[in-house]
Amino acid sequence: MDNQFFKNIEKKTGVSMKDVMNLAGSLQNANFKDENTVRGVIQKVSQLANKRVPKELEDKIVQSITSGKEKLDFGTISKMMNNK
């Protein structure tokens, strides 16, 4: 991918691509059936996005992902965070 693509994403989201790539790398072998792992990911994404996730919403996201109803990706978490 070209550098301009990443710059555009950083500009729109306010999140550095380095942070996104670090998070993506940490997710490669993560166990998404484990509640603590999923909570950690949610907290990291909310921190990167500078958006608070209320406990009840975090619980809903964790339940949905650990049960297999939703897969864990940025789109899923973003959608759930925006539907609070």
Largest sheet: none
Question: Whole-Å distance between the termini?
Answer: 33 Å
Number of domains: 1
Count of alpha/pi helices: 5
Query: Which structural class is indicated by helix and strand composition?
Result: mainly alpha
Computed over alpha carbons, the radius of gyration is: 13 Å
Estimate percent helicity.
55-70%
Shape: globular
- Which whole number gives the mean pLDDT? 80
- Give me the strand/helix succession: HHHHH
State the low-pLDDT regions, or none.
none
Strand-residue fraction?
under 5%
* Tally of DSSP β-strands: 0
Brief characterization of the structure:
With 84 residues, the protein is mainly α. The chain contains five helices and no strands.
Question: Key terms for this structure?
Answer:
Sporulation protein; 84 residues; mainly alpha; SpoVIF
Task: Note down, in words, how this protein is organized.
The chain has one domain (3-82). The N and C termini lie far apart (33 Å). Helix 2 runs antiparallel to helix 3 and helix 3 crosses helix 4. It has helices at 3-13, 17-27, 35-49, 55-66, 74-82. It has 84 residues and is mainly α. It comes from Bacillus amyloliquefaciens (Bacillus velezensis). Pfam families: SpoVIF (PF14069). InterPro entries: SpoVIF. This is Sporulation protein.
Write the layout of secondary structure elements.
Blueprint: H1 3-13, H2 17-27, H3 35-49, H4 55-66, H5 74-82
Helix pairs in contact: 2-3, 3-4
